[in-house]
Amino acid sequence: MGRKLEGLQRMLVIINRLKGPQQYVPREELENYIAHRMEERDGSPVDLRTLQRDFNEIEELFGIRICFDKQRKGYFINEEDSLKQEQYDRLLLNFDLLNAIDRTSNLHTYVLAEHHRPMDYECLPLLIKAIRFSHPVAFNYIYIREGGKIREKKVLPHYLKEDQQRWYLLAYDNGTLKTFSANCIRNLRIINEETFRRNMDIDVEELFKDSYGIWNQTDIPVEEIELSYDALDGSFLRSVPLHHSQEILTDNEEEFRICLRLRITNDFVMALLARSRSLTVIKPMRLREWVKKVYEEALKRNA
Q1: Peptide bond into 136 cis (omega under 30)
Q2: How much is the pTM?
Q3: 232: Cβ–Cβ under 8 A, 6 or more apart, which residues?
Q4: Cα separation values, 17 from 31, 78, 148, 171, 290, Å
Q5: Mean pLDDT of 68-87
Q6: How many Å separate Cα 36 from the centre of its chain?
Q7: Predicted pLDDT at 258
């Protein structure tokens, strides 16, 4: 196993142990746990010096600070630096899977991984660093909807948000909070000689509560939406809701009917079309006409 891969696996083992129900983990207990888990992965023994180096790298890479409580004689994760549980679990799941696949084992014979590496991942480390240390960033931004027109931007980065396997930057552009697709950022550079005071009062959950995906166009009203499907499509929508506001109105052998409350954007309509085999838009009528128009134009093109 390569040193870099082994070190990453060891760091994830440490995080996984310290995020458990036991608040303080004694040094010997943590060392034994790491040694046992790394032995399963054909790793090397770990000493105190290696452990401390791992703690430093964990803080640098993940922003997770591991401390030692002398009174309780145990290690713990500083709650101020811990990630939200959903993000935490996703990070550990993704890295554990990737690490397992990278090992010289036969796991590839029963796990089929997607090998495509999206371009937008390349700028994430720099963006994370800029956000963490409150530095502005400058970049060239490609406006896809304007025929690929490029504009130079200088913004104050605040958050990274993932949606539909793509990453987006939330940043203040001339005093207005905007969303930038990481996939459209080019020539990114951190302006290290400048700093700004990060706005920690942004309610990110509230910001996207009424939107589908990343686009929260406040000039579009929030509307009540009612959709009808057959039982087969309903089985999928029951397990993977279209939106967090989804409520089930009817669920039987003939019909699966739901209501939602959100802004009707192009992204939302595209999501509806992705599972539209049995879709009937009950309301609002303008959404029904929108879907109808898309299909009429598609029929003309493919007649």
Answers
A1: no
A2: 0.60
A3: 278
A4: 11, 14, 47, 34, 51
A5: 69
A6: 31
A7: 97
Residue with tokens 């999501």: 271
Q: Return d(Cα 155, Cα 173) in angstroms, integer.
A: 5
Per-residue pLDDT of 106-163, as tens digits, reads 545 555 555 554 555 567 778 888 888 899 999 999 998 889 899 999 999 998 887 7
pLDDT digits (tens, 9 = 90+) for 153-173: 999 999 888 777 778 899 999
User: Torsion angle, CA of 179/246/259/254, rounded to 10 degrees?
Assistant: 130
Q: What is the 3-state secondary structure (H, E, C) of the chain?
A: CCHHHHHHHHHHHHHHHHCCCCCCECHHHHHHHHHHHHHHCCCCCCCHHHHHHHHHHHHHHHCCCEEEECCCCEEEECCCCCCCHHHHHHHHHHHHHHHHHHCCCCHHHCCCCCCCCCHHHHHHHHHHHHHHCCCCEEEEEEEHHHCCEEEEEEEEEEEEEEECCEEEEEEEECCEEEEEEHHHEEEEEECCCCCCCCCCCCCHHHHCCCCCCCCCCCCCCEEEEEEEECHHHHHHHHHCCCCCCCEEEEECCCCEEEEEEEECCHHHHHHHHHCCCCCEEEECHHHHHHHHHHHHHHHHHHC
